[in-house]
Specification:
By secondary structure, this protein is mostly helical. 70% of the residues lie in helices and 0% in strands. The chain contains 4 helices and no strands. The termini are far apart.
């Protein structure tokens, strides 16, 4: 996937906030989009989940990224 400079900078910024590599975040976003499991852009649930991930990563120095992603997926799953 090719990104222009502005999109790449935005991806790097979000990846740094989540303490993951930009390529990892790009793959996570791509997979969510391909599977249809990702939230719609700008949705309240998605923003809240990202905010929780950022806050959690800032509180803890050694965070398990897999656990963070798993928690975010649970938070974003549609309620049944």
């Amino acid at each position: 996937m090719r990104l222009d400079d502005a999109d790449h900078a935005a991806l790097e910024k979000q990846a740094n906030e989540l303490r993951v590599r930009p390529g990892t975040l790009a793959r996570m976003l791509l997979h969510a989009g391909l599977t249809g499991s990702g939230p719609t852009a700008g949705s309240h649930a998605a923003r809240a989940a990202l905010d929780r991930l950022v806050a959690r990563s800032q509180r803890q120095a050694g965070v398990d990224a897999v656990e963070l992603v798993a928690d975010a997926r649970v938070a974003l799953e549609p309620r049944r």
